[in-house]
Structure formats: structure tokens, C-alpha cells
Amino acid sequence: MAKRIDVSxxxxxxGDFLAVEDVSMTIEPRSVTAFIGSSxxxxxxxLRTLNRMHEVTPGAYARGKVLLDDMDIYGPDVDPVLVRxxxxxxxxxxxxxxxxxxxDNVIAGARLNNRRMSRSEADDLVEESLRGANLWEEVKDRxxxxxxxxxGGQQQRLCIARATAVKPSVLLMDEPCSALDPISTLAIExxxxxxxEDYTIVIVTHNMQQAARVSDRTAFFxxxxxxKPGKLIEMGETNQMFxxxxxxxxxxxxxxxxx
Amino acid sequence: xxxxxAPQAAPPPTGxxxxxxxxxxxxxxxxxxxxxxxxxxxxxxxxxxxWPSLAANTTGFLTTQEWDANVRENPAFxxxxxxxxxxxxxxxxxxxxxxxxxxxxxxxxxxxxxxVASVLGYLVDLLAAIPSVVYGLWGIGFLAPQLVPVFRxxxxxxxxxxxxxxxxxxxxxxxxxxxxxxxxxxxxxxTAMSRDVFKQVPQGHREAALAMGATRWEMIRLAVxxxxxxxxxxxxxxxxxxxxxxxxAVAMILSPSLAISFDLLQSGNxxxxxxxxxxxxxxxxxxxxxxIAAGLVLFAITLAVNMGARYIVARGSxxx
Lengths: 259, 320
Ligand SMILES: Nc1ncnc2c1ncn2[C@@H]1O[C@H](COP(=O)(O)OP(=O)(O)OP(=O)(O)O)[C@@H](O)[C@H]1O
Ligand SMILES: [Mg+2]
What we know:
- The complex is a heterodimer.
- Chain A is an alpha/beta fold.
- Chain A is 36% helix and 26% strand.
- Chain A has 10 helices and 10 strands.
- Chain A starts with a strand and ends in a 5-residue tail after the last helix.
- The model of chain A has no long low-confidence stretch (mean pLDDT 91).
- Chain B has a single domain, classed as MetI-like fold.
- Chain B is built from 10 helices and 2 strands.
- Chain B has helices at residues 15-56, 80-111, 114-129, 132-158, 175-199, 203-211, 216-245, 248-253, 272-279, 287-319; strands spanning 67-68, 76-77.
- In chain B, helix 2 runs antiparallel to helix 7 (216-245).
- The two termini of chain B are 32 Å apart.
- Bound molecules: adenosine-5'-triphosphate and magnesium ion.
């Protein structure tokens, strides 16, 4: 299920503004890749180009190549809707549909692709997805209550369940824990650990310990200067990045020294 | 929390500021009270003026249909047919206008290029600025004759549906024509309210839908419509309120007659507002008082609809 992502020479623009310059990287299947870097260096922007979500922003576009296994996701007759059902996304702010029940939230995406799902199939998928998101035990007695009634950490796990119910091959997560307490954060980190068995996972985080804890490989982005585009500075095994980075810039960022 | 160890240093507000505050608070409270007074005054006026005819009425006011009030003794009049016509015309107008308004609002917010969207929004707002007399003229002068063949077709092919049973009116001046005109009149308010709430759908919800592979229409179904439901309903209720009270256009289009009839394509219904406007100049005896009693019923219906709308909108905004 999990797929490899191969990016080469990607530039991302907001209108005239070049936000991310010339990124090339390979993201291995069944691994967790962390994106780190200072605020505004284009981590979210780059992440959103991996499932064409940046196209939702008026004026935003990308140049370059992104391969999902063999499929060029920017190919001339590739439907972005299809790309997004292959490459799911979890956002910084948990965003369950407020008027829908927990059950309907989980099933919402899967229903789009498979309208004629039977009741028992749907029940199974909901249970499987919620179990996969370590949320089943907490919500199994109130599946028909609105998803907005859950705690922040539970809502975020609900969003992960909703994303996995579509059966994507890649999961993108943009600071999924930044609004959560340490306990909920640990719950999500454990979950990421399990999910990497089946998915290719990319996570943006500002938390170095988190990057070190959950990821196999780490990519460090930085601005080439104020008002300049963001760039990929260095990418490597997480262990090595945090102990013996190749670039001085990376070492400064990781150890908290700037300038 | 205790206040015992609170620092005493809070600076006292200046005298000037306090006077300003007091004046403003007084004005605000005064305007609020004024609204209540006006409302209560209107209600009291209607009840007092309606009372003589209601007391003298020899039939059930709410249950009978004929209108025999222009007499000095034993008036016999009922509002049933009028209230029915009022609600029927407004309800059909609402059924016709709401889907179109929602469609226009969705198009403006999510489909149209920005330039087209702003021009279209402006045009819809312009519809609201057309005086109802003009709508009335348009209704009799243009729409009614245009609809005659349509009505004939409807009775021919859909005549088995009781609503469309013939014979179709040859003038086209039927309750359905009036409803179409009313629908055009309430389109702007429903569109404007829907457009505003569709614009407020949080980006997070829209992106959540798109990120799991929803098409634009699926995104609208998953994220936009549930969020916007209360706004659409609120707009529809405001439109309904307007349609119920609209006088001029309906009075011009419908030929005066009194009957409870579901035959949308025959002349034979009338609304309260139009009836009052048409009858008032000729009212004698108990006539004026009886018309005011009819007005009281219209007032009650509109009040109920508006309160319903408010309740729905308030409940919706609490949920979101
Ligand atoms: N919708 C947008 N329109 C125009 N410019 C944008 C938009 N979103 C982001 N940018 C710009 O693109 C650059 C990269 O932003 P991005 O959000 O990708 O940074 P980031 O690395 O995710 O930052 P953070 O760590 O704070 O989330 C910034 O200069 C930002 O101002
Ligand atoms: Mg970001």
C-alpha cells in the first residue's frame, strides 16, 4: 500500500512570490520523514504540493516533478481529486466536520469513493479505522455523538481515522500535535509509529524531540535570507542529522544557535 | 477569586467619559424600548380597531371564507380563504426561490471567477431595489401572458396531479403567477444570506473535505451545506416573511375572488395583504374594522414566521 515519493526540482510560487526553491528528495515507503526548519521557510507549502492541496490557494502553483511510485502527480491528465485520495492529509488544527457524528466523520471520505457501501462494511471500516487511530475504546459507546464533542487530542485522532479510512498510501501531517498536551502528543506519536507499517508518513514539526522520536529520516529547510525563498538544506537519517549533521546551518538550528 | 488583596490602583474613569457612557447607554436602551413600544402599539391598535367587527361577526372569523362585511348590521366574514391564499402563495414562492438562491450563492462563492462573482452579486442586490409596483406591472404585463401556454401545457400533461388540474386560466393571473413574482422578489434576500454564510465556512472544514479526495461538489456537500444550513433557513424565513406581507404585486396580479383552492392554475385565491389593499377604498359599515381584523391575522402569521427564523438562526450559530 505504502508508496515512494520522488520529488525533483520542485519550485512553489504564490503568484509572483517564489516560496520554495528547487527541492529534490526521495521519501521511502513505510517510513516516517520529518520536516523541520524555522517558521516561514516553506515546510507547509512544500508539504501541500505533495497532494496538490496548494492548488486550493488562489494563485499558488508548482513547477517540477513529483512521482508517487510511477505516477507523475502533476501529469497532464492526472486528477487532483485522485491524488488526494492517494495522499491523505492531517492538519495542525483538528478539523472534524462539526455537524457530523463521530461515525459519519470517519466514513465521510470512504463514502465518496464507494457510495454503495453496505451497512456492515461501513461498520467494519469505522471500527477498523478508529482502532487504527487508537480511539475505538474511547468512543465506541458514543459513535452517534458529534465529533466536535471530543477533546482536542481525540479530535486529532478522529481526523487521522478519517484520513486512513480512505485507504491512502501516504499520510501528510502538518504539525499534528502543536495544539495538544504532552499526553495526547505521545498518543499521536505512538500512533504514527504503528501507522508507518502501512503508510508512507511525512510530518512537519517544530519540536526537535518529536522529530527525533518519531522519524526515520529528517529534512531540514531554511530560508536563504529574509524575503528569499525557502530551500531544502539537508536531508538524512534522523540519528545522523541530530548527531553529526553535514551542514553548519543544520547544526546551528538543531542546537538552537542561529545566525 | 477574592478581591481582598486587589490593588487599589485602578484609575477611576474620568467624569466626562462616564457622562458619555451614560448618554449612550440611555440612547441605546431608549431605542430598544421604542421598538417594543411601536410593536405593542401596532398590536394594540389592530386589536382595538378589529374588536367591533369581530364582536358583531355572525360566523367564525377564522373558519369561514366569505367576506360580507360592508354592512351596518350582522356582518359575516371569515379570513380562512385569505389566510390560506397568503400562506400558499408565500410557500410556493419559497419553494421556487430557495433552491435557485442557494445555487446562485454557491456559484458566486465557489465557482464563479472573482469578476463574474462580484457583478452577479451586484445584480442580485439590484433585484432587491426594484419597487414592488414594478414587479406587479411586470407580472401582469409580461409574465402572466407568457405563462398562459405553460399553464395550458401543465394541465394537459400533468393535469392528473390535483395541483395542476384544469381548466387553465386564460389570463395567466393565477396564484402560481403571483408566486413566481414573489419568488423573484425574495430571491435577493435568500441569496445574500446564503452567500454570507457560505463565505464563512472555515477553511479547515473545506480543506478537510478536499484532502480526502472530495470533488468541489462533494466538498460543498460535506463542509459547506451543513455549515450553511442555518443561514439558508434564516434567509428563507426572512424571504417568507416578505412574501407573506407583499401587497402591491399580488394585488395587481390576482383577480379578486375568495376560495380555498389548491388549483394553482385557475384564478381563485387571494392573499390577506392584497385583499386589504383592494377592499379598503370601498369599505363601509363594519368593513374597515373587518379588514383590520384580517390585518391582525397577517401580523400574527408574520410575527410567528420571523420568530421561527430567529430561533433557527440562533440555534444554528450555537451549534457551529
Ligand atoms: N496563502 C499564501 N499566500 C501567499 N503567501 C503564502 C501563503 N502561505 C504561505 N505563504 C508564504 O510562503 C512562505 C512559506 O510559508 P509556509 O507556511 O509554507 O511556512 P512554514 O515553514 O510552514 O512555516 P511555519 O513553521 O510557521 O508553519 C512564507 O513566506 C509565507 O508568507
Ligand atoms: Mg506551516
